[in-house]
Amino acid sequence: MKDRSQRKERVGIVVSDKMDKTVVVKVGRKRPHPQYGKIVVFHKKYYAHCEISDVKIGTTVKIMETRPLSKLKKWRVTEVVA
Description:
This protein has strands spanning about 10-15, 20-30, 40-50, 60-65, 75-80. It is built from no helices and five strands. The model has no long low-confidence stretch (mean pLDDT about 95). The protein has a single domain (about 10-80), classed as CATH 2.40.50.140. It is mainly beta. It has a five-stranded mixed beta barrel with strand order 1-2-3-5-4.
């Protein structure tokens, strides 16, 4: 029997926890600049479902891709890294 494809995982910092059971996680990734070649950090924000109660602003968390839970939420918090 064939397994499903591996789900995407990201590690980022919580920048907002104002919503009920939802956090906004900012994920940075390093890539070379398209024209100049310098390594630059590009940031993206993800809305993630969070059942864990001790997640506050500044917490580093691991998020995993999941089915769409709402218009913007397509990720969920799996664990608190630090």
